[in-house]
Write a structure and sequence with these properties.
Number of domains: 1
Distance between the termini: 45 Å
Order of helices and strands: HEHEEHHE
Number of helices: 4
Helix content: 25-40%
Low-confidence stretches: 14-23
Mean pLDDT: 87
Structural class: alpha+beta
CATH architecture: 2-Layer Sandwich
Strand order of the largest sheet: 2-3-1-4
Strand content: 25-35%
């Protein structure tokens, strides 16, 4: 019987895990790590464009030195809802992220796509 190829999602997850060993080994976050949760709602009729803009952030952001996790989610309850779950090695690493070309491009476009946005920083405790 022929060998099955690994599913693309499994390959991506394995690649992300391998790439982050230096920052997040054995499941332990750096002491100064911060989590950012960004909840967004698209303007009416802008869901597909918002999703495309958010997807464009994922690849370059995951390659940044201080990025541990950068995951995009879509709401199951509302077609307009999106969530970013980010973990950064330090708050300074996130600040550096906000100065990158891909983030500045997002900043210039977000207001025309978003009906609302709520963000909050979190600290892992257990």
């Amino acid at each position: 019987m022929a060998k099955r190829k690994a599913k693309p999602a499994a390959k991506r997850a394995a690649k992300r895990k391998r790439g982050k060993i230096g920052l997040w080994s054995a499941g332990k976050l750096p002491k100064e790590a911060v989590t950012l949760v960004v909840s967004m709602r698209a303007r009416t009729g802008q869901q597909l464009l918002l999703e495309a803009e958010l997807k464009a952030l994922v690849g370059p952001t995951r390659k940044e030195a201080g990025c541990i996790t950068y995951d995009l989610h879509r709401s199951l309850d509302s077609a307009e809802g999106f969530l970013l779950h980010e973990i950064w090695a330090t708050r300074d690493a996130h600040t550096a992220h906000t100065k990158t070309p891909h983030f500045l491009r997002w900043e210039a476009r977000k207001d025309s796509l978003l009906a609302s946005r709520d963000l909050s920083f979190w600290k892992f405790i257990y």
